[in-house]
Amino acid sequence: MSAPAPSPRLELLPAVDVQGGRAVQLVQGVAGSGGEFGDPWQAALAWQEQGAEWLHLVDLDAAFGRGSNRELLAGIVGRLDIRVELSGGIRDAESLEAALATGCRRVNLGTAALEDPEWTAAAIAEHGDRVAVGLDVRGTTLAARGWTKDGGDLWETLERLDGEGCARYVVTDVNKDGMLKGPNLDLLREVCARTDRPVVASGGVSTLDDIEAIRELVPHGVEGAIVGSALYRGAFTLPDALDVAGRP
What we know:
Layout: E1 11-19, E2 22-24, H1 40-49, E3 54-59, H2 60-63, H3 70-79, E4 83-87, H4 93-101, E5 106-109, H5 111-115, H6 117-127, E6 131-138, E7 141-144, E8 149-153, H7 154-163, E9 169-173, H8 185-194, E10 199-202, H9 208-215, E11 222-227, H10 229-232, H11 238-245
Parallel strand pairs: 1-3, 1-11, 3-4, 4-5, 5-6, 6-9, 9-10, 10-11
Antiparallel strand pairs: 1-2, 6-7, 7-8
Helix pairs in contact: 9-11
GO molecular function, one term: phosphoribosylanthranilate isomerase activity
EC number: 5.3.1.16
GO biological process, one term: L-histidine biosynthetic process
């Protein structure tokens, strides 16, 4: 008997989260909780040099409504050769246009999709595949504004966004994020069962086995996985992770 065919390739997106001009990692979204990792440009460049094809670049200060690293992030996007998903504080026309103008491949809307549904629908209609929506989840309740507020029911919001033509979802289990205790595979399966749009998994990846487990969900609708703390803490290398994810 021949061995079963491996799952299709999983896209990996190393994360560079920026706070106060520095690369950081948070635990469950708590400021100052996960350590600082220096110059965000050097972090981004290192992931590119190690084979990344995507980068998940986050302005944490903008996400929490306490400032902005906009010019710094725009400079990083402009100097990289790989695709960038830009996230954090994109919640109105001005911030969306500024984010798209960096040349990033797509933006990730968070709080705005919960607090201003009409604007979100218009942004999805105008920009299509360049707009993803971040669904940050505790149980089946969405977390908004840097994870400090409840944002409504996951399934109701997913149904609404599907109806508006949302192209892609970035799904984070807030309770898993930065904890290095494994992803919430059940949540990912359930989201995939309720939408035909691709899903990017975020939160909890701590081992190469976790990446393999998420890769097995690719046939169900998971397209990619964001990896942060595990890479920065040396749990595995990015080249090894890319191999497990099925890079050619």
